[in-house]
Amino acid sequence: MATRQTFSYPRTGRILQGLSIALVAVSLAGCAAQKKELTTGSIPKFDKPVQSMTASELSRAADSIGNAYEKNPRDRNAGLNYANMLRMTGRNGQALAVMQQVAIVHPSDREVLAAYGKAQAAAGQLEQALATIGRAQTPDRPDWKLKSAEGAILDQLGRAPEARQRYREALDMQPNEPSVLSNLGMSYLLAKDLKTAETYLRSATNQPAADSSVRQNLALAVGLQGRFQEAEDIAMQELSPDQAAANVKYLRSVLSQQNAWQKLAKDEDKGTN
């Protein structure tokens, strides 16, 4: 989920763009959330699980899946897998091009439309992504995943109240879903309400299905409040030594902007008085 967004707080948005906060789940957790999205049926066999691959291994895996896609561009699963792997390796423009072709062949497939919307969002086409996700959703059979995806796009558009409504609708359908709770927490983090963000993110991490990406978001929320050691401890949980080292390095680079964040908050507070 790598694009640069503009949020509802103009000056805050510039700092958030630099830190890529909205993408921290992918950047810190090794694309843990996206790695779960690969569909079966068209995936070449790899020597190790996708979840444990390094960046170079992911790139090679993407090329391997790309070969399967090129042999049969009309293969739905091959297209979905290839686009997802491309997004995981940062090739968002190429992922969008693949999903455009898949959507032409499968224009009514909800999973295809959802993946197409994600590819559009990753490529910065937020309004188009919102429309595509809306086409994938059906009133008689609403999908909580699509509700959450819609919320994430609305957050990137600076429409936080609408985004949070979508997350709560998703939670009504899928109570205590950690990925939705995490998105809701990140929505508050983007608005600089760090305590509320931490509350939702802690709730997310306490769920049995929570993955590392959720914990990395919690680490960010904790670190931005000045509790750096606690944040690093959270960031290092359940990861290989290499992943833990990379996560802590990234977290430190983000938290090095803490003084800028605090100064920004004070300046904005002064400006509203």
Q: Could you characterize what this model shows?
A:
- With 273 residues, this protein is mostly helical.
- Helix content is 70%, strand content 0%.
- The chain is built from 16 helices and no strands.
- The protein has helices spanning 10-19, 24-29, 32-35, 55-71, 76-88, 92-105, 110-122, 126-136, 144-156, 160-173, 178-190, 194-205, 212-223, 228-235, 241-255, 258-272.
- α7 packs antiparallel against α8 (126-136).
- The longest helix has 17 residues, at 55-71.
- It starts with 9 loop residues before the first helix and ends with a helix.
- Mean pLDDT is 78; it is low at 1-36.
- Count of helical regions: 16
**Secondary structural class:** mainly alpha
Total number of beta strands: 0
The percentage helix is: 55-70%
Signal peptide: 1-32
Protein name: Pilus assembly protein TadD
TPR repeats: 144-177
Keywords: Signal, TPR repeat
Give a quick rundown of the structure.
InterPro entries: TPR-like_helical_dom_sf, TPR_rpt, UCP035836. It comes from Pararhizobium antarcticum. With 273 residues, the protein is mostly helical.
Task: Describe how the helices and strands are arranged.
Blueprint (H helix, E strand, L loop, with lengths): L9 H10 L4 H6 L2 H4 L19 H17 L4 H13 L3 H14 L4 H13 L3 H11 L7 H13 L3 H14 L4 H13 L3 H12 L6 H12 L4 H8 L5 H15 L2 H15 L1
Features:
disordered N terminus, TPR-like_helical_dom_sf, Pilus assembly protein TadD, TPR_rpt
